């Protein structure tokens, strides 16, 4: 019964977090500005409707990174380093994910060695290496990686990576300026961010049946959206979403408040950190906009992560 309750609480917390991400939008203009690295921005496909970024160089200075990443054996990072010869903890500075709603590419800025155009070393089954317009592509039929130069790499489906290479020679190929402008509204202190001009097209993960089906249908009308998080002192997350009308925004607002309320009522008094986390979430609606804010101190975040890790091991 205890295990089932823990899983139930974890699912509710995950739903609240996912909903906050999906409901992010661009209705605010923070004073400080973020930006996509100048070496990566020209490579963003013109048909992109979503950009998401991680500033690893800034993340490395946070208590979160030093506590949960630095010096730890993380299987996903170890596997990435083994397959490519690159350690994200040492070699990468910034990662930008671009999606057109159907496929995604990762644009990476980092330090890839002293040799211009150094190639990754893929070791997975079915690994292949071929040349495309002077660039070496390595990977398999599903995904490849190529180095544009000694500090920029591109990874994604083969055809998508080839299209980015083609765009370097196309004077008419321009990155999506609307998305870049939205990124520029995000505080420069954020280590993690996401913007989209078509949020509704990105919410297929929400259930289409059951208690969340109404929320999913309303969320499908999400227009512009942005989310950013600063983990310098805990979790400071802001998400803004624009909807077609005030009625839809209120429906989303009420559904999110309901989920948070259920999560809090389902939390035992012996779980004070989970209660504090739910209390740190604020949802507001005004006109056709929904804002979500999470402001949880590092001590609460640390305990919840450790508890989740213990439950996973157990």
Name some characteristics of this structure.
2 domains, 11 helices, 314 residues, globular, twelve-stranded antiparallel beta sheet, alpha+beta, 12 strands, 36% helix
Q: Mind explaining what this structure looks like?
A:
With 314 residues, the chain is α+β, with helices and mostly antiparallel strands. It has 2 domains: 1-34 and 184-314, no CATH class; 70-174, no CATH class. Helix content is 36%, strand content 25%. It has 11 helices and 12 strands. A hairpin with a 2-residue loop joins strand 6 and strand 7 (152-156). Helix 1 packs antiparallel against helix 9, helix 9 (246-265) runs antiparallel to helix 10 (272-279) and helix 10 (272-279) crosses helix 11 (298-313). The chain is globular and about 60 Å long. The chain starts with a helix and ends with a helix. The relative contact order is 0.17.
Q: Brief description of this entry?
A:
With 314 residues, the protein is α+β, with helices and mostly antiparallel strands. The chain has helices at residues 2-22, 56-59, 63-68, 75-84, 88-91, 158-167, 177-183, 213-219, 246-265, 272-279, 298-313, and strands at 50-55, 92-99, 104-110, 128-132, 135-139, 144-149, 152-156, 192-196, 225-230, 234-242, 281-286, 289-297. The protein is built from eleven helices and twelve strands.
Q: Give the number of helices.
A: 11
Strand segment tally: 12
**Percent of residues in beta strands?**
15-25%
**Major beta sheet, strand line-up:** 4-5-6-7-3-2-1-8-9-10-12-11
Radius of gyration: 21 Å
Could you describe the largest sheet, including whether it forms a barrel? 12 strands, antiparallel
What is the first-to-last residue Cα distance? Answer: 14 Å
Tally the structural domains.
2
| Uncertain regions spanning at least 5 consecutive residues | 1-31
Helix and strand composition category: alpha+beta
Average pLDDT figure: 81
Question: Which term fits the overall shape?
Answer: globular
Oligomer: single chain
| Estimated helix fraction | 25-40%
Spell out the helices and strands N to C: HEHHHHEEEEEEHHEHEEHHEEH
């Amino acid at each position: 019964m205890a295990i089932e309750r823990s899983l139930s609480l974890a699912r509710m917390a995950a739903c609240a977090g996912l909903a906050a991400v999906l409901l992010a939008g661009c209705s605010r203009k923070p004073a400080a500005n973020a930006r996509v690295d100048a070496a990566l921005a020209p490579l963003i496909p013109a048909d992109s409707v979503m950009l998401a970024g991680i500033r690893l160089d800034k993340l490395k200075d946070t208590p979160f990174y030093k506590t949960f990443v630095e010096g730890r054996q993380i299987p996903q990072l170890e596997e990435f380093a083994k397959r490519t010869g690159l350690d994200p903890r040492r070699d990468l500075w910034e990662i930008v994910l671009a999606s057109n709603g159907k496929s995604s590419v990762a644009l990476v800025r980092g330090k890839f060695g002293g040799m211009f155009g150094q190639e990754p070393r893929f070791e997975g089954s079915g690994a292949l290496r071929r040349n495309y317009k002077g660039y070496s592509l390595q990977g398999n039929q599903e995904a490849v990686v190529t180095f544009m130069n000694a500090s920029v790499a591109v990874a994604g489906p083969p055809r998508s990576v080839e299209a980015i290479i083609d765009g370097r020679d196309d004077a008419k190929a321009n990155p999506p300026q609307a998305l870049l402008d939205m990124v520029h509204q995000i505080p420069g202190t954020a280590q993690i961010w996401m913007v989209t001009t078509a949020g509704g097209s990105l919410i297929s993960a929400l259930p289409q049946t059951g208690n969340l089906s109404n929320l999913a249908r309303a969320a499908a009308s999400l227009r512009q959206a942005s989310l950013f998080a600063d983990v310098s002192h805990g979790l400071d997350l802001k998400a803004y979403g624009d909807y077609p009308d005030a009625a839809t925004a209120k429906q989303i607002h009420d559904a999110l408040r309901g989920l948070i309320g259920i999560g809090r009522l389902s939390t035992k008094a012996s779980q004070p950190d989970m209660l504090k986390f739910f209390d740190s979430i604020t949802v507001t609606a005004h006109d056709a906009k929904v804002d979500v804010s999470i402001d949880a101190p590092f001590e609460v975040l640390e305990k919840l992560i450790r508890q989740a890790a213990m439950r996973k091991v157990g």
